[in-house]
Amino acid sequence: PIHLLEGHYDSSELDELVKFKTKAEEFDFEKYSELAKNPKAVAVGETGLDYFHLKDLSEGEKARAKEKQKEIFAKHLELAAKAKKPAIIHCRDSSFGQKDAYQDMLAILKEAKKKEPKLKGVNHFFAGTLNEAEILFELDFLISFTGVITFVKDWNEVIKIAPLEKIMVETDAPYVAPVPYRGKRNEPLYVEEAAKKIAELKGVSFEEVARQTTLNARALFGI
Length: 223
Fold this sequence. Notes:
The protein is α/β, with parallel strands linked by helices. It has 2 domains: 1-119; 146-223, no CATH class. The protein is 41% helix and 13% strand. The chain contains 7 helices and 7 strands. The protein has helices at 29-36, 59-83, 100-115, 130-138, 156-161, 191-202, 206-221; strands at 8-10, 20-22, 44-50, 87-92, 121-123, 141-145, 167-169. The strands form 2 sheets. It has a 5-stranded parallel β-sheet with strand order 3-4-5-6-7, sandwiched between helices. Helix 2 packs parallel to helix 3 (100-115). The radius of gyration is 17 Å and the shape is globular. The two termini are 23 Å apart.
């Protein structure tokens, strides 16, 4: 569920024209615990911390919104552990290089792992540093890359160093279409562009990246 203090209409994402409307929702632990029991449910999430959209709030409103996010994130991790399902984590800092959301996310995740050592998952649309990736690996979490890596070089080092067994690929469609589809609506089919870029950076074949990331996804989701 999306937990906002009020509804939100997102008219622009990374200067793209895709639009969507998000509703406010209170988290009902028991309701979602029942849903998570369904064998078709392979994960809990996405969940996490997003401080990017808080920049227009007052300092008091920001503090309250962050505390709400952290509270619900911890409960979602508890739900994932209880359901024995992986958690899909979303994490977005307030601005590029400001590592506030990642710092808070990792602190909460470390506490959750102390209580539930078998908790696992993936940080989708990874936007952290190499050090943050290594901490996630230590906590039994994978990292996932989108087509952003085809036109942004910030995560080249992470991709080169991170074990392929710890990496997944995705699109985050309909946003952030990869090269050569920039400016168009992103589609699930374009996931192979992210895999091709990872292969290029690691100096391995596309087929190896496709094979290993597929194995990683199947192992994580139990499919």
